[in-house]
Amino acid sequence: MRGMGNMQGMMKQVQKMQKQMEKDQEALKLKEFVGESTNNYVKVVATGDRKIKDITIAPAIIDSDDPEMLQDLVLTTINDVLDKIDKENEAMMGQYTKGIPGL
C-alpha cells in the first residue's frame, strides 16, 4: 500500500499545479501587451486573451495617396503584439510542461 501514498501525494501536487496554472492563465488574460511599428507610428494594445483594446496611429503617417503603407504598418504592429502574447504564454506554460514527454 506504500505506492498509494505516493500516488495521493502526486495527485495533490498535480492539483496544486493545476490551480496555479489556472491562476497564471487568468493573470495573462488581464495583462496588457503593446506592439509598436517602426518609429512608433502605429501602436496596438491587446490583452493576453488576444483582444485588441486600442490602436493609435500618428497623424503624420496618414497619407491619403498611400493607404497601403498604413495598412502594412497596422498589420505589422498587430502581428508584433500577438507575437509578444504568444511568447509570454509559451514562457508561462513552459514552466508547467517542461519535463513532460510529448509537450
Task: List the defining traits of the structure above.
single chain, 103 residues, alpha+beta, Ybab, Chain: A, three-stranded antiparallel beta sheet, 2 helices
Cα gyration radius (Å): 21 Å
End-to-end gap: 31 Å
**Poorly predicted sequence stretches spanning 5 or more consecutive residues:** none
Q: Can you tell me the CATH architecture? A: 2-Layer Sandwich
Output the structural class. Answer: alpha+beta
Which strand order spans the largest sheet, edge to edge or round the barrel? 1-2-3
CATH topology: Ybab, Chain: A
CATH class: Alpha Beta
Strand content: 15-25%
Spell the H/E element sequence: HEEEH
* Helix share, percent: 55-70%
State the assembly state of the protein chains: single chain
Helix count?
2
Topology:
Elements: H1 2-30, E1 32-36, E2 42-47, E3 52-57, H2 67-97
Helix pairs in contact: 1-2
Verbal overview:
The chain is an alpha+beta fold and about 100 residues long. The chain has a single domain (about 25-95), classed as Nucleoid-associated protein YbaB-like domain (Ybab, Chain: A). About 60% of the residues lie in helices and about 15% in strands. The protein contains 2 helices and 3 strands; from the N terminus they run H-E-E-E-H. A 3-stranded antiparallel beta sheet has the order 1-2-3. A hairpin with a 4-residue loop joins strand 2 and strand 3 (about 50-55). Helix 1 packs antiparallel against helix 2 (about 65-95). The protein is rod-shaped.
